[in-house]
Structures are given as C-alpha cells and as structure tokens.
C-alpha cells in the first residue's frame, strides 16, 4: 500500500507542476517539477521509500522513454542524416566521455579513479531533446540545428548508457581489459540492436496480423505496444545485451513499419499516440520530481564546503562539454548544412542541455564504498543535478537573447472568431435540409460545442443576451397567440418551457437542479402511497396503462403535442436568430454562441420526446462528414479571399480535423 501511496503522490506532484507551468510558463517545465519535488520532500513522508532500485529504474523509466523516442523518429530522415547522427551520437559522445573522464582523473587523481571518472562523464554526456524543446518553445530555433539536437539526443542516450554500463562494471569488479572491453562493447552494442530489431519486427507482425483479421481490437494491440519496451529490455538484459539499444531499435522498427499500421484502425493509432504522449510526459516528470525529492536530503547530508566544490566542478564540467561541442561544429566534424557556422556552433553548444537520461543514470549508480571523498552515490547524484541545473539556466537565459521570438500572424481572439464563423457556416448549411431533423439536432449540438469549449465567457453579458433573447421569444409567442396561430393552452405550456430554461441556465442552476429532484422525489412518494393505500385504484390505472389501444392513442396524442411545441419553437427561433445576428459584435461573439447553443439544446430536447425511434448512425456519420467538409471549404474560401492568413487557415484546419475524428468516433461508441 505504501508503494501505491507514493506513486499517487508523485503523479499528483507531476500534474501540479504541469498545471503551474501551463498557467505561468516563465521557467522551464523541468524547473517547476524539481521545485514541486522539493515541496513534496517537506511533507512528512519517508523519502527513502521513493528511491527505486537501479535495475527497476532502468526498466520502468528509461526503457519506455527510449522506445517512445525510437518509434517517433522518421526513418526517411534518419537514413538521410545517418552521417550526422553517427558524428553527434557516437563520435561526439565517445570523444566527450574520453576527454572529460581523462580530465577528471588528471585534475583530481585523489578523488577519481579512471572507472569512476568515465562513469561520471558517461552520465553527464547525454542530452535531452524534451528539455531543449521546453526552452525553445517561444523562439525560432534554426531547423538544421534543431534536427541535429533531436537526433543526437535519441542516439547519444544509448551511447552514454552503454559506456555507463561498461564503466560501472569495471568500477564494481575492479578489473578492465582493453581487448575484452572492446569485444564486450561490440557484443553489447550491436547485439542489442540486432535483438531489438528482431523483437520489434515480430511484435509488429503480431499486431498487424491481429488488426487485419479483427478490425478493431485496440484493447489487445495497444497493451502489446505499451508492454513492448519492458519485454524487449528485460529479455535483452537477460542475454547480457544492451537493453536500451534493444528498445531503441525496436522503436525504430515500429517507425519503419508504421505505414502498414496506418492502413488499420485510425482509432487505435490515435489512442496509441495519445497514450504514449501521456506516458512519456509522466515519466519525464517523475524523474525531475524524484530529483527534487532527493535534493534536500542529499544537501542536508553534504557539508557546505563540499557543495561549493561540487558546484565549481559541475560548472567546469559543463564549460568543458560546451567547448567540445562548439569546436566539434566549428571544425565541421558534423555537417549541419549551416549558413552561419559561428552562430550554429554556439547554438549547438548551448543546446547540449541535460535532463532525464542523465538523472536516470545518476539514480542508477550502484551504492559505492566511501574510499574517496567524492566516491559516494549521493554526491555524484548531486553533481549530475547541478550540471543539469546549470545547462537549463544557461539555456533559459541565452536562447531568448540569441534567437528571435516566435510570432504568429494571428491572435487567439482572431482564431476563436474565425472558428465560430466557420462552425456557424456549417450549421447553417446543415439546417437547410428539411430531412433527418432528429439527427441534425444532435449533430448541431455537437458542432456548437466547437464554439463554446475553448474560451471564457462574460457571464453578465451572456445572462443579459439570454434574457433579451427570451424576451424576443415571448414577444413572438404573444403575437402568434393574437393572430390565432397558437392556442392559449399552447402559449401557457410554451411559456413554462421558457421559464424552465431561464431557471436552468441562470447562475442558480444548482438550486434549480435540486428543486427538480425534490419534485421527482415527491412524485415517487405519492405513487408509493397510492399503491399502498389504494391498491384497487392503482391496479385499474395499471390496466389502463397496459391496454395497447389506449397506449397507442396516448402515443399519438403525445406525438401531436410535441409536434406542436416544435412547430412553435421553429417559428419563434426565426425572430431569435435575427435578434442574435443584429446584436452580435466582435466583443460578444462568444456569449452569442453560448445563447445559440442554449436554444440548440432545447431543440434537441424537443426532438428526443418525439419517440420516433433510434438515431440512424449512418445518417449521423454522413451528415457529420458533410458538415466538417463544409467547415474545411469555408476556411479555404476565406484563405483564398485573403480574409485569413495561411497560418490561421492551417491552424483552423488542424483543429477541425481533430474535432472531426472525435465526433465520428463518438457515433461509434
């Protein structure tokens, strides 16, 4: 139970940090997560229970992260940039580990053995693409530099992890042979790649076969995909191969064969992508929160003088690695197709930001003997953490000053306004057809949700517009009564319906809800008393209710009754829509959309009481496809006429496509 409690706390902490970053994105997300972990450590919980065993940490955290990175890579771009990838992910990683490790040993021989120095160098060498993206969200990073950093972060993780494993093995055993080390490296490195590729191919073949023979079995193939990195990593490690390289290779195989999966259920693909995005986000957050939880304990157990020494050493290590990266680019050891070598070299150096993998390897350090001053696990973790914090801080300060800010040629308000016009156009086109009114009502309500779920409304403006619209509606109803179009009874019933809507959509909706349930409870009590004290009368009423002839007549009367109400609704809505068109301005367009949706909900309610049978799903699907095609057409027309920019059109089309997928899937549920 303790484990469940701790995992729950970590989840809550990660989500809380994500929310704060969303509301106040001043600092990188990783910093918020570290601070949240520090706050969590203040709580009266046993922080020792949060630390995972190194093997479990690699299996549960690193393996799925590396697999997800592998399956998200484009194999076409991968093959086109293979020399660039080998240069950064293998050549630069190995050179950095050798130079930094040797420098540590020569500079601090009393604190570091070669094995310990190379292990620390391997820990701080890998870069983190997620951390880079979090720092460059609001700036224009050159495409060539951005791609170089992304591919490097994928594959230098594997290189760093293999070197880390070799250094750790040497450190714990105390023995190292160059020839044996080279053979072991080749076996572990290439064996992991081959094994992972085979496993990935077999699992892809299994998933594809299942999805071809059974149209939609997401409950089976999605868990298979999620369990793949754990199974591949565990089996590879059992064979003494690189589990990390194996899961990367399996992920890349998934990317290579992804075209085959695109021909299968779109729902499965969409659900798989969404699930992996959530998993990756949570796992990345877990690592930084764990760092925040451990920092206070590590710092409290370390002397202030030692912390200062570690900070200076971390700064020196960061500067050394940044210099190596800069020189690697300036001497053109990596071809970035650069038009500004000096600028791109500096960006490449600053882009060497460390994050999840560095922390994960630090947490995976075995418990070491305290034979040297720095040879303690906690101090090495603290050293790696300081390197990460330095790289994050430097990137946060440097990128906005070196790169131009990202700019959009449209504002969020313009996007919302155009989205409302687009949806309203589709609704108007849909409403012109005199057929399938029931399906139309349901679809119109779905479409109208596009206009109301992505912005905040002014409640006072909405209440005023809704009250004015009801006034127009009641005035129209009175005129219909004077002209003899509706009867006094129909006017009375419809006025009660207007009053009920006013109550339910006011700021006192909760009290109205409770009042409705109060009356329903009273009705049930009255029915119970009638059955208990007047059983004969109740039996007669039940017999009348069960009589088919009377039942049919009742249905016919009920049908006619709601037909009349719908007819009155359609007549009053003509004037209401004219009023809303007249009062709509750029300042109240959201509130007007909400009022329109209120009336659309009433139309759907009236239609539901017709009891004309179930919705025709095929008709709903056809109407939905036509409606979303109308939305895309409207956006294309606006772009062609120069009313909206191409960027705004692309953003609208992407939003519409996502809404279409969700809408169509809702009809299948």
From TrEMBL:
Q: Which UniProt keywords apply?
A: Cell membrane, Ion transport, Membrane, Sodium, Sodium transport, Transmembrane, Transmembrane helix, Transport
Among the GO molecular function terms of this UniProt record, one is:
sodium:proton antiporter activity
Q: Where is the Cation/H+ exchanger transmembrane domain?
A: 12-403
Where is it mostly found? Answer: membrane
Transmembrane spans: 6-24, 85-106, 112-132, 184-205, 217-236, 242-261, 273-295, 307-327, 347-368, 380-399
The record describes its membrane topology as: Multi-pass membrane protein
Q: Which InterPro entries match?
A: Cation/H_exchanger_CPA1, Cation/H_exchanger_TM
Where does the record say this protein resides?
Cell membrane
Q: Which GO terms describe its cellular component?
A: plasma membrane
List the Pfam families hit by this protein, alphabetically. Answer: Na_H_Exchanger
Could you tell me which Gene3D superfamilies the record lists for this protein?
A: 6.10.140.1330
What are the BP-aspect GO terms? Answer: regulation of intracellular pH; sodium ion import across plasma membrane
**What is the name of this protein?**
Sodium:proton antiporter
């Amino acid at each position: 139970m303790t484990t469940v409690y701790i995992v729950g706390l970590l989840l809550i902490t990660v989500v809380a940090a994500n929310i704060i970053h969303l509301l106040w994105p001043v600092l990188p997300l990783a910093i918020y997560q570290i601070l949240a972990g520090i706050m969590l450590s203040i709580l009266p919980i046993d922080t020792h229970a949060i630390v995972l065993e190194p093997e479990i940490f690699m299996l549960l955290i690193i393996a799925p992260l590396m697999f997800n990175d592998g399956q998200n890579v484009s194999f076409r771009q991968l093959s086109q940039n293979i020399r660039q990838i080998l240069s950064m992910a293998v050549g630069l990683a190995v050179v950095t580990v050798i130079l930094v490790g040797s420098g540590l040993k020569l500079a601090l021989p009393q604190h570091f053995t070669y094995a310990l120095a190379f292990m620390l160098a391997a820990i701080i060498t890998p870069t983190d693409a997620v951390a880079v993206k979090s720092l460059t969200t609001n700036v224009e990073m050159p495409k060539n530099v951005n791609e170089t950093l992304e591919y490097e972060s994928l594959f230098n993780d594997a290189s760093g992890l293999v070197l880390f494993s070799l250094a750790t093995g040497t450190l714990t055993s105390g023995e190292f042979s160059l020839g044996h080390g080279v053979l072991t490296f080749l076996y572990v490195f290439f064996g992991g790649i081959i094994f992972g590729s085979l496993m990935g191919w077999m699992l892809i073949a299994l998933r594809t076969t299942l999805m071809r023979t059974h149209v939609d079995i997401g409950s089976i193939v999605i868990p298979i995909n999620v369990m793949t990195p754990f199974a591949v990593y565990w089996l590879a490690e059992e064979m003494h191969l690189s589990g990390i390289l194996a899961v990367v290779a399996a992920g890349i195989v998934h990317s290579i064969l992804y075209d085959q999966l695109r021909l299968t259920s779109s729902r499965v693909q969409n659900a798989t992508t969404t699930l992996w995005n959530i998993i990756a986000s949570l796992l990345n957050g877990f690592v930084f929160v764990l760092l925040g939880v451990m920092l206070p304990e590590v710092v409290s157990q370390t002397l202030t003088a030692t912390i200062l020494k570690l900070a200076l050493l971390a700064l020196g290590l960061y500067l050394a690695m940044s210099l190596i990266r800069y020189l690697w680019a300036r001497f053109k050891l990596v071809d970035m197709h650069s038009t500004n070598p000096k600028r791109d070299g500096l960006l490449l150096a600053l882009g060497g930001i460390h994050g999840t993998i560095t922390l994960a390897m630090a947490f995976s350090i075995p418990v070491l003997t305290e034979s040297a001053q720095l040879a303690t696990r906690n101090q090495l973790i603290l050293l790696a953490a300081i390197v990460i914090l330095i790289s994050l801080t430097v990137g946060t300060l440097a990128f906005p000053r070196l790169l131009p800010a990202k700019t959009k040629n449209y504002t969020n308000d313009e996007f919302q306004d155009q989205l409302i016009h687009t949806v309203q156009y589709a609704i108007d086109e849909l409403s012109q057809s005199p057929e399938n009114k029931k399906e139309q009502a349901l679809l119109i309500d779905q479409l109208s949700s596009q206009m109301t779920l992505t912005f905040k409304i002014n409640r006072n403006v909405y209440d005023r517009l809704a009250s004015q619209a009801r006034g127009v509606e009641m005035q129209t109803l009175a005129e219909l009564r004077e002209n003899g179009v509706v009867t006094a009874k129909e006017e009375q019933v419809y006025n009660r319906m207007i009053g009920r809507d006013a109550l339910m959509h006011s700021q006192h909706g909760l009290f109205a809800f409770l009042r409705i349930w109060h009356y329903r409870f009273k009705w049930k009590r009255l029915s119970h008393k009638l059955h208990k004290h007047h059983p004969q009368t109740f039996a007669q009423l039940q017999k009348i209710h069960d009589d088919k002839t009377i039942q049919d007549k009742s249905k016919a009367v009920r049908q006619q009754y709601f037909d009349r109400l719908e007819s009155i609704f359609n007549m009053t809505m003509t004037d209401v829509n004219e009023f809303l068109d007249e009062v709509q301005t750029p300042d109240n367009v959201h509130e007007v959309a909400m009022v329109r949706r209120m009336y659309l909900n009433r139309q759907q309610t009236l239609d539901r009481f017709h009891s004309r049978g179930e919705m025709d799903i095929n008709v709903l699907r056809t109407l939905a496809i036509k409606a979303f095609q109308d939305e895309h057409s409207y956006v294309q027309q606006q772009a062609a006429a120069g009313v909206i920019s191409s960027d705004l059109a692309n953003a609208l089309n992407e939003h519409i496509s996502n809404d279409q997928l969700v809408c169509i899937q809702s009809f299948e549920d």
